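User:
Can I borrow your eye for a moment on a structure tokenisation matter? Would you put together a sequence-and-structure record for a protein of your own picking? Please set it down just below, with no commentary around it:
AI:
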Amino acid sequence: DCRIPQHREYYHSHKKERRAYVYKRTYGLDYKTILETIKKQKGLCPICSHRMTTMGMGHRRAVIDHDHKTGRVRGLICNRCNGLLAKAEDNVWTLHKAIAYLNNTPKLGK
């Protein structure tokens, strides 16, 4: 509970450790592996090519992408692209249809 000053101080001063614990517990990945993967990707999201951050709540924070059916980790992407995949429910056909729509839909209005 972050209403107690000592808890609030710990919460804000140990973000890296808390996130590392969640990565390890949920996905079996240690923080070193996360950093190595981001380095291999040159710090870029493999979908949108924007630079990702490892900490903070920014719109380009690196997140672990995984298959919700199998739990298999696919890689690291930015949280905006992760939201895109989530909204499409990881459905490749839906994403192809969205691309076709963007490429082929006539403009309405002016």
